[in-house]
Amino acid sequence: MEIENHYMSSILEKSWPKILVGVIFVILLFFVIWKSNIKEETYDWTSPKDLVLSEDVKKEYEATVDQIKDTDKEDPEALSKLAKLRDSGGDPEGAADLYRKSLKIKPSSEVMASLGDLYGSVGDYKNSEKMYLEIINNNPYDVETYNKLFELYRYKLKDNYREPESWLFLGWQVNPSAKTYFIKRIAAYYKDIGDKDRAVNYYQQILDDDPENPEARAALQEIMNIKF
């Protein structure tokens, strides 16, 4: 019996650091859950009182909330409007919550884009990417979203795409009527990274369609005077 007690004591003596770490982890986990629950309970999207807004905008916020209450249902357009106001008032997390509420009621590329932009503004680039890709999946003719993906992969998610301009080429292929828009972005990109030959090629394509295009002419003049 003494041997068994000594053996158990030895095990406990060796294991107590791990046990202590485990206990601390459980305590921290419960604390995080508790804080989350407290936040959910105190979060009131119907009130602008904690937002940094002018009095006129606060009244606009309250009027929109009253509009929702009067119809006795959560209107997606009204929720999206409140989301924009919350974001401008300094509560991006609350704004994201309202955008998500709006999307659950009625999926919308415009609201997805706003949510994607918001995620990007707070550094949540993976969710920003998710929103933009979903827009393209639902509506491949959304020209601006191709540019947003291009910029996201170029500046924020560099490891995801070695050639971020591929999104501009894809947008051009899917939306041939927006050719000039995409060529301008492609040409500017190649100019920025110092690929003189490609930049000249695409600016020249713009001039082929519009010989007097001032932007392309100025860019070509600048390229010819720059040592890459």
Relevant terms:
single chain, 228 residues, mainly alpha, 76% helix
Task: Report on this structure.
With 228 residues, the chain is an all-alpha fold. The chain has helices at residues 2-42, 55-71, 76-88, 92-105, 109-121, 125-138, 143-156, 166-174, 179-192, 196-209, 214-224. α2 runs antiparallel to α3 and α9 runs antiparallel to α10.
Task: Reconstruct the topology from this structure.
Elements: H1 2-42, H2 55-71, H3 76-88, H4 92-105, H5 109-121, H6 125-138, H7 143-156, H8 166-174, H9 179-192, H10 196-209, H11 214-224
Helix pairs in contact: 2-3, 3-4, 4-5, 5-6, 6-7, 7-8, 8-9, 9-10, 10-11
Task: Write down the overall mean pLDDT.
Answer: 87
**What is the radius of gyration computed over CA atoms, rounded to a whole number of angstroms?**
27 Å
> Count the strands?
0
Main β sheet profile = none
* Total DSSP helices: 11
Low-confidence stretches: 30-41
Q: Based on Cα principal axes, name the global outline.
A: elongated
Order of helices and strands: HHHHHHHHHHH
How much of the sequence lies in strands comes to: under 5%
Helix amount = over 70%
The CA-CA distance between the termini, in Å, is 84 Å
Structural class: mainly alpha
